[in-house]
Amino acid sequence: MFQDQYRMNSDSKEQQVQWMPIMRDGMVAAWPICLGYFAIGLAFGVIAQKAGLHPLEIGIMSLLVFAGSAQFIGVSMLSSGAGFIPIVVTTFMVNLRHVLMSSSLSIYLRRINSGWLTLFAYGVTDESFAMNLTRFRDERWDWRRALVLNHTANIAWIGSTVAGGYCGQFIPAGAFGIDYALIAMFLCLLVFQLRGLLYAIIALIAGFLAVGISLIVPGNAYIIIASVIAATIGVFLRKSRFFTKREQGS
Amino acid sequence: MMNTDYLIVFVGMGLVTYVPRWFPLVFLSRRQLPQWLIEWLDFIPAAILSALVLPCLVTTGDPRHLDLLRHELLVAIPTFIFALKTRSLAGTVILGMFLFWLAGIFL
Questions:
Q1: Which of A97, A171, A242, B26 is 20 to 30 Å from the Cα of A232, by its Cα?
Q2: How far apart are CA A153 and CA A123, in angstroms?
């Protein structure tokens, strides 16, 4: 019912957008991300607090940066006395992978005004990207739900990092296997992306390349390098006769 | 009290994180993309998810080295098979956490 009504309303400006079901869908879809962020955010809060950051500073950092690994690295650099330029340049390198994610998402975010896009871009993380992209293939998903998901995850991140700064040391590390939430989520979202033999081959190539490169090149450049090479191989493989035939056949 | 030096660093970190997130969205969503780019971007999710997760399963330490006996990898195998069979995100996350917790206790 809601969905049918929603579809009729979706892109006509004269009609009111129904925010209630949108809010509900976006927030419900965000739960595995929130669970994972809760674990990592608490851990980050504890470390940041030990590095001398006040919980308020932790919250401001999470609000301004909203990026897990870059914040861990930033805090460790701050506490070792690194300057502004090295920290900012490192952050840029660590987070450059989001270029690929935003490019991929842009296909689903056409005809949306740049104000909303500006708000959306803030919430593009590894986790929200993986979740939104999977759901955009589902007809019921749209940019408003995706936006709600992004910001639900953001609130969870800010909240749990601040909580970690206050009382994270009282929570036993690794309780209930919560540290595995995001890995399990990524595994399942990867399964959703394997929509045929070609995608499975590309994923395998990307995975093995990433492992190989990660052992040689320090930092996380392996994510971008492996994904770009694997996707490029994919474009060429799709052109090859074998896959052209297969796809016509199926 | 908020330390001003920290605040400046955080603003800098925020800006260089935000721009790579924002630019492709605004730039690409306004343009008619060539077919090869659409096909290329179509492979990015599978590639990037695999590139994100596989190194977490089989490498560890700093400097990183290969370790095929990690709980992460051991738990990933049944978790992945479960995801393939059920295609349930909630189930996969809960099973993964549960098995990882068990592995931490018994292995």
A1: B26
A2: 8
pTM over 0.90: no
- Which tokens go with A79? 């506490």
**Most B CBs within 10 Å, among A188, A198, A209, A235, to test the B interface:** A188
Nearest to A190 by CA among B44, B39, B36: B44
Measured in angstroms, the CA of A211 and the nearest CA of chain B are apart by: 5
In this structure, the answer to whether residues A183 and A200 fall within a common structural domain is: no
CB contact under 8 A, B49 and A203: yes
Instruction: State the ipTM, two decimals.
Output: 0.92
| Residue written as token pair 């930092």 | A219
Same domain, A207 and A137: no
Structural domain containing residue A231? 195-250
Give per-residue pLDDT as tens, B39-91.
Answer: 999 999 999 999 999 999 999 998 899 999 999 999 999 999 999 999 898 89
- Taking CA–CA distances from B36, the nearest residue in chain A reads A235
Residue B85, burial from CB neighbour count under 10 angstroms (0-12, 13-18, 19+): exposed
